[in-house]
Design goal:
Strands 11, 14, 17, 18, 19, 20 and 21 form a 7-stranded mixed beta sheet that branches. A 4-stranded antiparallel beta sheet has the order 1-8-6-3, with no helix packed on it. About 30% of the residues are buried. It is built from 10 helices and 21 strands. It folds into 3 domains: about 100 residues, RNA polymerase II/Efflux pump adaptor protein, barrel-sandwich hybrid domain (OB fold (Dihydrolipoamide Acetyltransferase, E2P), Beta Barrel), CATH 2.40.50; about 100 residues, no CATH class; about 200 residues, Chloramphenicol acetyltransferase-like domain (Chloramphenicol Acetyltransferase). The protein is α+β, with helices and mostly antiparallel strands.
Length: about 475
């Protein structure tokens, strides 16, 4: 009889912790090797973690919603079927085990259900604004005065030893990490902490706490008071992926100077090429041929012609990327994720199609690796699949632009006939929107890039599709 520790895995070089978002098994369940046993969320990706061996789930040491450091033991397997299982599914971990888990794991849990409510129903919110305010205050990272010993305690060293991404964000916003109390292990400042701190509009250093905001009177909340539940409302905590998406969107919106330009593009030629090559393409590749690989192909060519659209801002410098890594937004039932096609300039229409389908399928089954959602130099989002005509997408951090694709539909258009006279024709069209960072991308650059895409798609060569 032996027990096997199940630990929080290292999901990437810069990822120091993860949130256990959901248990897929309960204490006493039999599990097989490589069978998914729990789900985790990091600041990069959601993933299902498989069991390391066959056995029975004997102990659960980290509950849903807790954030723990990598290599923390989250559960134990009994490797012999029928062996005694310690405790029930709701058994609390021992004191040392509780100490290993961070204190900031969704303190207080979900609101209690109303009497008589069915199991699994959303909790009814009691009219207790004071409690809600206290909960919000306890969850947020707070600023504190640096210790007199110069920050040499274990907690201060852990806070300073945050991930490279957290330190980069802190440096860009002039925030002293050692002066923050984070929600990670031993007060470690996580990415969510630093983004929440920036979003709150708090001062960058303790010495500046009395400095008035440029956008609000001194002492006023920069974004107004938080919403409070009313009698009969239902409150559900955000999922981890929703919280991370929220943090990323707010930080991205605050960082870049957003401007959006729109072009209408005639995709009739692409539609005809696709219809002509579709049967042979799908027979040879086993993949469904869509419009998106054609668009990516032309976008990459456009980025080569207009490199500032494939760049990033670094302080007062511009980094011109020499890789063409295209992030493709994928809508999931539980949120949004952006897997990345690396070195898209090396891929054919067939290669792009394979990459698109593979990444989308693994995103939906939570089998993406952290490196597969990192390193985008340009992004594409496709709300048109849901019927949206156009939008103004938010530029992901550390890139300079994102392309939004509207619904592809047939429209009556005025075109020049063979004899030079105007005529009405049915054309397959879509609106493309380009959100760009006006700090480094001028409007002329953005419009020239869109004009290149328009010309490239409306004159796409038939050769080489299959």
């Amino acid at each position: 009889m032996a027990r096997v520790d199940i630990v929080m895995p290292q999901m990437g070089e810069s990822i120091a912790e993860g949130t256990l978002s959901r248990w897929l098994k309960k204490v006493g369940d039999e599990v097989k090797r490589d069978e998914p046993i729990f789900e985790i969320s990091t600041d990069k990706v959601d993933a299902e973690i498989p069991a390391p061996s066959n056995g029975v789930l004997a102990e659960i040491l980290v509950t849903e919603g807790q954030t723990v450091a990598v290599q923390t033991v989250v559960a134990r397997l009994e490797t012999e079927k029928g062996a005694a299982v310690g405790g029930g599914a709701g058994a609390a971990p021992s004191a040392p085990e509780r100490a290993a888990a961070p204190a900031a794991a969704v303190a207080g849990g979900a609101p209690a259900r109303a009497a008589g409510a069915p199991a699994g129903a959303p909790p009814a919110v009691q009219n207790t604004p004071a409690a809600a305010t206290a909960s919000n205050q306890s969850a947020a990272p707070r600023i504190q005065t640096p210790p007199p010993n110069g920050g040499n305690s274990l907690n201060d060293r852990l806070r300073t030893k945050s991930s490279p991404l957290v330190r980069k964000i802190a440096a860009e916003h002039g925030i002293e990490l050692s002066a923050m109390q984070g929600t990670g292990v031993a007060g470690r400042v996580t990415k969510r902490d630093i983004l929440q701190f920036i979003e709150s509009g708090a001062s960058a250093t303790p010495a500046a706490t009395t400095r008035p905001s440029m956008h609000a009177p001194a002492g006023a909340e920069q974004h107004g008071p938080p919403a409070e539940p009313w009698q009969g409302d239902v409150v559900e905590p955000m999922t981890q992926i929703r919280r991370l998406t929220s943090d990323h969107m707010v930080a991205a919106r605050r960082t870049a100077a957003h401007v959006t330009s729109f072009f209408e593009i005639d995709l009739t030629r692409i539609s005809r090429i696709r219809a002509k090559a579709r049967a042979e393409f799908e027979a040879k590749s086993g993949q469904k041929l869509t419009y998106l690989p054609f668009i990516i192909k032309v976008v990459v060519d456009g980025l080569k012609q207009h490199p500032v659209l494939n760049a990033a801002v670094s302080g007062t410098n511009i980094i011109y990327r020499k890789q063409y890594n295209i992030g493709i937004a994928v809508a999931l039932d539980w949120g949004l994720i952006v897997p990345v096609i690396k070195n898209a300039d090396d891929l054919s229409i067939t290669g792009l199609t394979r990459q698109l389908n593979d990444l989308a399928q693994r995103a939906r089954s939570k089998r993406l690796q952290p490196q597969e959602v990192q390193g985008a130099t340009f992004s594409i989002t496709n709300p048109g699949v849901f019927g949206s005509l156009m939008g103004t997408p938010i530029i992901p951090l550390n890139t300079s632009a994102i392309l939004g694709l509207g619904a592809i539909e047939k429209r009556p258009k005025v075109i020049a006939g063979p004899d030079g006279e105007d005529t009405i024709a049915i054309r397959t069209c879509a609106y493309f929107s380009l959100s760009f960072d006006h700090r480094i991308v001028d409007g002329a650059d953005a419009d020239k890039f869109l004009a290149f895409i328009k010309q490239g798609l409306e004159s796409f060569p038939e050769a080489g599709v299959v």
